[in-house]
């Protein structure tokens, strides 16, 4: 059984602390700017993973008087902060690479740097696999962000290792800061993309096309007992999804039957979207409605409802 979100972020924090210490010692000993840049990135990982831990704790709190929709957006907010941290990390790496180009300092111990980066790559790879599995199991946007962050670290670490190998076999020390520049540009780009995605949750962007298609598919199944639907609104907060819409039914239906139809549709949409919060407002159809659902008598509608329930 996989651990929960909070435990997963604690593992991230402890792993980042260990990697930061190893890289700082290795970077100082070898004189490699790319290893030092990777160490700085790991230090920032400690901060962002810690923020994520407290954000997850807060997001799991039940709704209260001040937060009727719950606290799930704390996940999105933490992810946005993390995107900012990643951006700063990339800019710092650029600055350090520029300083190395200007100073012309050489890498003192290439072999030491190679061993440091090999160790960090193995540990980071294991962490990425772990975070991916927990993120999928928990359907957590913040853990997906955390996993992406460490995937970027994995790629940048591979770049650092490649640069050190090239320095070792060619003696061209300029490769080290050059690799750092490439890493920095990739880091900043990934952070901007991540920030855009998270911002969409914070401004209540509609669910993606796939989820909207699933909702329409459920509503289509109920065409035999509903007249129509409109005013569909969807949004996402952290790992939670929300949807509300208006559904028109036969104006002569009893309140009990109309409520039963609404409950059935809400439950099916919620299940289809992985536990979404769904609210339906029932409306009567027009006086002279020609829809087939309005041509049915109460008994026939009851039969249709029972048929749908039995599926």
What does this protein look like?
The chain has 9 helices and 3 strands, in the order H-H-H-H-H-H-H-E-E-H-E-H. It has 311 residues and is mainly α. It folds into 2 domains: 5-202, Cation efflux protein transmembrane domain (Alpha-lytic protease prodomain-like, Up-down Bundle), CATH 1.20.1510.10; 209-310, Cation efflux protein, cytoplasmic domain (Alpha-Beta Plaits, 2-Layer Sandwich), CATH 3.30.70.1350. The longest helix has 31 residues, at 73-103. It is elongated, with a radius of gyration of 27 Å. 39% of the residues are buried. Residues 208-285 form the Cation efflux protein cytoplasmic domain. Keywords: Membrane, Transmembrane, Transmembrane helix, Transport.
Profile the largest sheet.
3 strands, mixed
Number of helices: 9
What share of residues is helical? 55-70%
Enter the CATH topology name of the largest domain: Alpha-lytic protease prodomain-like
Mean model confidence by pLDDT = 81
Oligomer: single chain
The computed structural class is mainly alpha
Number of strands: 3
Protein traits:
mainly alpha; Cation_efflux_CTD_sf; Alpha-Beta Plaits; single chain; 311 residues; 2 domains; Alpha-lytic protease prodomain-like
Short description:
It is a multi-pass membrane protein. The chain has 311 residues and is mainly alpha-helical.
């Amino acid at each position: 059984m996989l651990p929960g979100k909070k435990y997963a972020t604690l593992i991230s924090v402890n792993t980042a602390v260990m990697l930061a210490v190893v890289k700082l010692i290795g970077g100082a000993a070898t004189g490699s700017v790319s290893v030092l840049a990777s160490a700085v990135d790991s230090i920032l990982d400690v901060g962002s993973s810690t923020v994520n831990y407290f954000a997850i704790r807060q997001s799991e709190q039940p709704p209260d008087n001040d937060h009727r929709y719950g606290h799930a957006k704390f996940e999105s907010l933490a992810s946005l902060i993390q995107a900012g941290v990643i951006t700063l990390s990339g800019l710092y790496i650029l600055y350090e690479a520029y300083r190395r180009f200007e100073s012309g300092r050489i890498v003192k111990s290439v072999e030491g740097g190679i061993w440091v980066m090999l160790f960090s790559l193995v540990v980071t790879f294991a962490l990425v696999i772990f975070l991916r599995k927990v993120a999928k199991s928990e359907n957590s946007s913040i853990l997906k962000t955390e996993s992406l962050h460490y995937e970027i670290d994995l790629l940048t670490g591979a770049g650092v290792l490649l640069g050190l190998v090239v320095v070792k076999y060619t003696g061209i020390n300029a490769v080290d800061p050059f690799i750092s520049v490439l890493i920095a540009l990739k880091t900043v780009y990934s952070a901007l993309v991540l920030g855009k995605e998270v911002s969409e949750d914070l401004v209540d962007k509609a669910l993606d096309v796939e989820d909207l298609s699933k909702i329409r598919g459920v509503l289509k199944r109920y065409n035999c007992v509903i007249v129509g639907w409109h005013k569909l609104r969807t949004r996402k907060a952290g790992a939670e999804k929300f949807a509300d819409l208006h559904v028109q039914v036969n104006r002569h239906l009893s309140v009990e039957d109309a409520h039963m139809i609404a409950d059935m549709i809400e439950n099916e949409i919620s299940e289809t979207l992985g536990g979404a919060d769904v609210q339906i407002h029932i409306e009567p159809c027009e006086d002279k409605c020609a829809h087939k659902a309005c041509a049915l008598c109460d008994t026939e509608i009851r039969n249709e409802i029972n048929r749908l329930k039995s599926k």
